[in-house]
């Protein structure tokens, strides 16, 4: 029987190729399918630091987006009551300079936009693993459906994280379950993101303005669900940002700093950002870009694990680049560098 190709191209520019991989070939396939899918996944992380997946097995995406939109539509005071206090793990609501930039139509207000040029135009809600002593999640009051949906979605994503680490292990030619003990706690973070509607003149008046500034993710891998608005860009090896255009029913998965380190830099952690969405035909120069919603699920090894170089990533020609590190210490260092606090 002719073999059906399970890998095509999601993004193909002169400088960056991001593969689009059918993950059902891994989840339901035979040994050969699992091997070829694993190799395609690892290859994407090595070349681009990004892949797209379809048939990923996460079923509640639409429902979770709906709950996210309902949450962000709540009055500011209700959201502020859930503010992330930045004293421990990441849990809670994070408002940024979005209000001032919302609906800037009057030229005198554009000055405000310029002053806020360094700020992302976004708000987020972070949800961690349930049941961590002293680190409760912050749930909106009186909305049990929201909590149930998010806990369920968290657990679906957690399952995909385990499967993807198995694929990476197979790709590296080590035991399929090599990462299992590293990821079984599920110390991951689910982040709902809302980029409020914004007038195009905000971007025009400040060429540096973005919806989310350029960054690498810190952990092992990130599962990123985006709506159809666009604006996510990925840095190509020769320094150009390339649009990671939304593709229906797919998720974007990128490898982060800790996985790069863990793999002795065989895997890349690639910068990305969210900018003004590309124009659609018929759009006016002066227009309001509608809200954009995305959901990121940041995966990390169990925080208490010692993360040392993955076997199979060192060979005769490559020298060990990094010492081992406790995952929780590494993450805390990253957050201290970013926010000045633990
Ligand atoms: O909203 C997006 O598409 C990207 C978000 C992101 O990169 C992040 O939160 O780390
Ligand atoms: Fe990111």
TrEMBL record:
This is Clavaminate synthase-like protein. It comes from Myriangium duriaei CBS 260.36. InterPro entries: DIOX_N (IPR026992), IPNS-like_FE2OG_OXY (IPR044861), IPNS-like_sf (IPR027443), Iron_ascorbate_oxido_reductase (IPR050231), Oxoglu/Fe-dep_dioxygenase_dom (IPR005123). Gene3D superfamilies: B-lactam Antibiotic, Isopenicillin N Synthase, Chain. PROSITE patterns: FE2OG_OXY. SUPFAM superfamilies: Clavaminate synthase-like. Residues 186-301 form the Fe2OG dioxygenase domain. The keyword Oxidoreductase applies. It holds the Pfam family DIOX_N. One of its GO terms (molecular function) is metal ion binding. The lineage of its organism: Eukaryota, Fungi, Dikarya, Ascomycota, Pezizomycotina. Belongs to the iron/ascorbate-dependent oxidoreductase family. GO terms for biological process: small molecule biosynthetic process. Keywords: Iron, Metal-binding, Oxidoreductase. PANTHER family: 2-OXOGLUTARATE (2OG) AND FE(II)-DEPENDENT OXYGENASE SUPERFAMILY PROTEIN-RELATED.
